[in-house]
Specification:
alpha+beta; 3-stranded mixed sheet; 3 helices; about 40% helix
Amino acid sequence: MLLIRTHSENYAGLTTHWEIGDVRSSDVRISDAAWRSSPAMGLFDLLDSLFETEEHFQGTIAHVLTHAAVWFHPELLEWWIQAQEAGGESLEPGDWRVGYRFQRLRVQVE
């Protein structure tokens, strides 16, 4: 995995996956814009780009590293979904609620 700092304003964080044969890798790019971008970018995050906070930066890094982790170990997402289903939720990969539930879990842990 390669971690790259960029000055792009097009994204706060970006993970690019690639593989050669059986060898997988990821390029993780963190932009200076990460200080002003909420990783969730939901309805309640519309004004986040006006403020620079450490939480935005840390959340962006956690978000893109999660993409890399799931690329290397796809079972991680499946395990997390199974844990949610054990708690009574019915989720599939790609379901919009996956991000919402993960965000709620992070808030509960903190």
